[in-house]
Amino acid sequence: MTFHSIVFATLISVIGLVSCSPANKTNPEVLAKDTTTDLKENTMKSYISMFEIPARDISRAIQFYQAVLDIKIEKMEVDGMKMGILPYEGQLVTGVIMQAEGYTPSADGVTMYLNAGDNLKVMLDKVVKNGGQIVVPKTAHADGNGYFALFLDSEGNKMALNSPH
């Protein structure tokens, strides 16, 4: 196991423990409270703490997302899992591309909206150029607050882009 693998495994473990543990899990009064009637303001900066994008071909998927997002993705393998680690410094959410048993790309299920910066048209053009397929072109949100587009990535996952322009 390389140094990066150990650091990544530790990072994932810490993120998982911190993001999935209730802050007051040892206080029975907090556990016994009915939270449906006593809701407090949510102070989370993001509802997502981590995401994984399934891949059939890790190299192809990494090339696709590097080109579309204009980032450098670190490739590694740990215990038979091939991974592409998206840059996580300065990010609220950690992203990983995964090729392993049980990870099957799909156009069904949850749709994740990626931040397309100031103008999603620029990023959407890269989707097609790099082997993706547009499902819904650049479209204004119903509330008039920005734009979105849906696409299939190089692996067949349904994804989306979101931007203010």
Provide an overview of this structure.
The protein is α/β, with parallel strands linked by helices. It folds into 2 domains: 1-33 and 45-103, 2,3-Dihydroxybiphenyl 1,2-Dioxygenase, domain 1, CATH 3.10.180; 106-165, 2,3-Dihydroxybiphenyl 1,2-Dioxygenase, domain 1 (Roll). It is 27% helix and 27% strand. It has helices spanning 3-20, 28-32, 58-69, 120-129; strands spanning 50-54, 74-78, 81-85, 94-99, 112-115, 133-140, 147-152, 158-163. A 4-stranded mixed beta sheet has the order 1-4-3-2, sandwiched between helices. A 4-stranded mixed beta sheet has the order 5-8-7-6, with helices on one face. A hairpin with a 5-residue loop joins strand 7 and strand 8 (158-163). Helix 3 packs antiparallel against helix 4. The longest helix is centred in the first third of the chain and has 18 residues, at 3-20. The termini are far apart. Mean pLDDT is 84; it is low at 1-11 and 13-28.
